[in-house]
Amino acid sequence: MPDSEMLTAYAPASIGNVSLGFDLLGAALAPIDGAVLGDTVTVHPSDSFSLSVEGRFAHKLPGKPAENIVTRCYAFYLKALEAKGKSAKPLSLTLNKHLPVGSGLGSSASSIVAAFHGLNVYHGSPFSDDELLRMMGELEGSISGSVHYDNVAPCFLGGLSLMAESGDRVALPLPTFENWYWVVCYSGISVSTSAARKILPTAFSLADTIQFGRQLAVFIDALHRQDETLAASVMQDVIAEPHRKSLLPMFDESKAFALAQGALAFGISGSGPTVFAVTNELENAKVINSWLEKHYIQNDDGFSHICRINNDGAIANVASANKK
Predict the structure, then answer these.
(1) 21, 226, 273, 284 - which has most CB atoms within 10 Å?
(2) Which CATH architecture group holds 181-308?
(3) Does the pTM exceed 0.90?
């Protein structure tokens, strides 16, 4: 890419787990009103590296650039480039932080994906998607305490993903139902992934384990056969929700309302506190969205969106460095 050009990479928010697929399912999101629900990283030509941070939730991040996950992505990417016998171009980065930290919407994954995708495209895409995905997973794991891909994979690749982590395949794309609306509501409070994992038991009963496996298998089969009713019927979380819902004020009331308004499913997005409702009727989605805005949101940081599945994943746009 010419040194006179800059590049902006966008990475969408995502739902981890999707209720029934703990650490194994993830879905990328796109608000139907065109609102930005994801982070951007802009790569600028420069004489030396620097990082600036802006956006609605910039103040929630560490004040020192060296402590920002995007700086760590840059260092990781440069080391990987050197291992390939390639040199990095001098540049600076700008992170626009649209997603709240600890929201359950893949906030760290969005920053990580935008950074790696932007850096890779800027340098002529020397790394394959699978190579990049493994880098992203490693950086994400450094935050949460273990490597998992249920946010970075859909955020990067788009759509609904099943984490394979088998051979050279990290994630597998799954069919979706195009008529489904996904209402996602962030309450405004923060729940760290590591804290949400600590609240889970270290072992599960045989009955819960069998139910988890059955639901996941039936769900994937139903997706491939486009059996909407069957797929929705197994979207119940037997692993995390019974324990994590205690961290989320108004969760039970919100779930009861959504289901009474025709929601096909209702659950916790990732580690929470964001919740999501699935419905195949736009009017139902609007009613649920309005109720969640009024009753589930706890402070001014909260928001709610009606979304579809984002099938594009991370995207990068190039512009002249002289046009901002």
Answers:
(1) 273
(2) 2-Layer Sandwich (3.30)
(3) yes
Residue 140's pLDDT band, with cuts at 50, 70 and 90, is: confident
Least Cα distance to 98 among 153, 53, 56 occurs for: 56
CATH 3.40.50.11930 fits 5-174+310-320, yes or no: no
Is 103 known to sit in a ligand binding site? yes
Q: Report the pLDDT value the prediction gives residue 322, as an integer from 0 to 100.
A: 44
Q: How do residues 75-115 score in pLDDT, each as one tens digit? A: 999 999 999 888 888 899 999 999 999 899 999 999 999 99
What local confidence, expressed as pLDDT, does residue 81 receive? 93
Q: β-strand 25-31 against 160-166: which pairing, if any?
A: antiparallel
Residue 104 annotated as part of some ligand binding site: yes
Residue labelled with tokens 């994590």: 244
Q: Tokens for 118, please give them.
A: 């932007």
102 labelled as ligand-binding?
A: yes
The answer to the question of whether 88 is labelled as a binding residue is no
**DSSP assignment string, 163-220:** EEEETTEEEEEE---TT-EEEEEE-S----HHHHHHTS-SS--HHHHHHHHHHHHHHH
166 annotated ligand-binding residue: no
**Annotated binding-site residue? 101:** yes
Please state the rounded mean pLDDT for residues 151-177: 94
> Is 159 labeled as ligand-binding?
no
Dihedral sign from CA coordinates of 124, 128, 129, 132: negative
pLDDT tens digit sequence for 199-254: 888 899 999 999 999 999 999 999 999 999 999 999 999 999 999 999 999 999 99
Single-letter amino acid, residue 197? R
Token pair for 65: 């650039």
Residue 107 annotated as part of some ligand binding site: yes
The answer on whether 31 is annotated among ligand-binding residues is no
